[in-house]
Amino acid sequence: MDYIRTDGKNKDFIENCRLLDMDLDRRVGRQIKREKYQKFNQLDEIREAIVVYDGDKPIGGGAIRRYDEENIELKRVFVHNEYQGRGIGSKLVSLLIEWAAELGYRRMILETGELLAESCAVYKKLGFEVIPNYGPYVDMPESLCMGKTIKSIIILGSGGCVSTPRPCCNCRVCKQARQKGFPYARTGCSLFIEGANILIDTPEDINDALNHADVRKVEHIFYSHCDPDHTMGMRVIEQLKMDWLADSVGKKQDDPLEVASLPTILEDIKQQGTKYGSALAYYEAKGLIRTKGIRTVQKDNMVIDLVPVDAEEHVAVFVILAGGKKVIYAPCDVKPFPQSEQFQDADVLIIGNTIVGDVLKDGFVLEEDNPLRGELFTLDEIDALRRQYGMKEVIITHLEEDWGKTYDDYKKLEGELKFIRFAYDGMRIPL
Ligand SMILES: [Zn+2]
Ligand SMILES: [Zn+2]
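Above: the input record for the complex with zinc ion. Below: its predicted structure, written as tokens.
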């Protein structure tokens, strides 16, 4: 089966909707007056639709439509009768949820009927719960409304040791980033796990990254290692938790952030500070944070394991198990890549440390004996890693301005590569 993205004007999608209406008339039409629903099913307002094909033959489809800022509505899902019961409907809905996540919606809602028991069962399996009838369905007792929170892993910052645009640099990449902003601009390397509310790493421009992705709540900060490009924005702890006015009248913060990593990494980071001493120790004394050495954590139906990259345990790779997906996050200092069974069959590997191309910024040619090759992977090495562990897909992050490539250049390159995509700030990986 092929699941093809299109819009509400696609003729195969429109035909599928006609078949859905016929099916509904046959099954429930006689018991409830279906005409009153018709005005809520206008196809020309639908911008995101998927049609399912068996070879050339359209055999099903569905769509999503903006409801408000936060919510998107699932609409017009139908699989031809002879294809039902093969999991096509649930795959179709999963792909529509993924699309909604990419568009940045936080919740999916839908209206169905209690008479449509099979559909309800599929939605429940996908994590939808019954909610009070919304909007046009409030006074329709035969309607049943359901909703599901959409969670994603968000690449907050896809940039490298320096962010893009680099101050005062007038190269092609920086010029474009300055003119167009995101996604041409890139902040330092960081990640956010929605639901568990875990921020991984705090580069200097983490505030901009959090605001750009519209993150609402951070409860934990995990660190991958102590290098400055991943830690020097730790004053974000003050921005998130310090209330100087409350502090001035002796009121203490009673809901500290948890700052966590492998115990050795935490010790490394505690050595960073000013003449006043360790920055983390100061925040802990102020009650803004609580530090904790960890190897694994469970939260919000997710399990996150920290796999040490080296025997001394100064760098960690994160294995995130959530929503039936396995996502590996290995942002920096991960060559040679550690061997672990935990990486087997991952859905996505998000990895930094990769040189993209042999000709870099301003025509710089990376020779075979260049020492950077010892620290950084090539795209071929990344693909070998993917095959070794049977991973489905790789997303390259920590994209250096030095690689001399714009957002458009990466998009073009993606078209030529199989299984490899390039990160951008605000990119969402639905769970
Ligand atoms: Zn530049
Ligand atoms: Zn780094």
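Notes for the reader.
The radius of gyration is 24 Å.
Residues 53 and 220 are 43 Å apart (CA to CA).
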